[in-house]
Structures are given as structure tokens and as C-alpha cells.
TrEMBL record:
Gene3D superfamilies: Rhodanese-like domain. This is Rhodanese domain-containing protein. Residues 33-118 form the Rhodanese domain. InterPro entries: GlpE_sulfurtransferase (IPR050229), Rhodanese-like_dom (IPR001763), Rhodanese-like_dom_sf (IPR036873). The lineage of its organism: Bacteria, Pseudomonadati, Bacteroidota, Flavobacteriia, Flavobacteriales. It comes from the Bacteria.
Length: 120
């Protein structure tokens, strides 16, 4: 009986570890500060003009699908005001094979940039 319990435990444990192989999460700070990243602000132009992260381009969420071609092959960080539109943009980009990362909000991405500047 003890052997059966031990064997069952080993089988269950083996299945659990094999099924939960989660790839490591990318470090968003490293990605935002990499030289080959494209920062995409998915808010409307008026919000973008009021303030955004350094070097960001404005592609509103409503236009993201039409810009897939220009983003393919690039490392893209998307962001908005609070992360809701960025999440939607991420879903669209990932479905279309774009290497996309969630920067959440423009203030978050700007803070990451500012942090790097103050370290220099």
C-alpha cells in the first residue's frame, strides 16, 4: 500500500511540474531601456500630446490593427493611461505575431526612463 501511495505521489508531482512550465517574465525595465524597443502609446492623440514617454509613437488602440505590418519584427512596449487599452493592444499584437510587452501606463514607462537617467 505504501508503495502505491509513493508511486501515485511521484506520478502526480511529475505531471504537475511538466504542466506548469511557465516561461520567465521579461523584465519590463530592461525592455523599456533597450535600444531596439519601439514604445507605442495607444491613447488618443490629444492625450498623447498632453504628455507621454520619451521617444514614444502614438498609435491609438482603434488603429493598432491597421499598423501590425509596421510593428512586426520589432520589440514593442505598449501603454496607455491605466493599462486597460494597453492590455487590449497586447492581445491584438500577440495574436498577430508581434513581440509585444505591457508597459501599463505612460507614467510607468516614463518613470522607468527617468530612473535610468538618474542612475547615469
Amino acid at each position: 500500500m505504501y508503495g502505491f501511495i509513493l508511486a501515485s505521489a511521484l506520478v502526480l508531482t511529475a505531471c504537475k511540474t511538466a504542466g506548469s512550465a511557465i516561461p520567465p517574465k521579461a523584465d519590463i525595465k530592461e525592455i523599456v531601456n533597450s535600444s531596439d524597443v519601439t514604445l507605442v502609446d495607444v491613447r488618443i492623440p490629444e492625450q498623447y500630446e498632453a504628455g507621454t514617454a520619451k521617444g514614444a509613437v502614438n498609435i491609438p488602440l482603434a488603429e493598432i490593427q491597421n499598423n501590425i505590418g509596421s510593428l512586426k519584427g520589432k520589440k514593442v512596449v505598449v501603454f496607455c493611461n491605466k493599462g486597460i487599452q494597453a492590455d487590449q493592444a497586447m492581445e491584438i499584437l500577440k495574436k498577430n505575431g508581434v513581440d509585444a510587452y505591457d508597459g501599463t501606463s505612460w507614467k510607468n514607462v516614463k518613470a522607468i526612463q527617468d530612473e535610468k537617467q538618474s542612475v547615469k
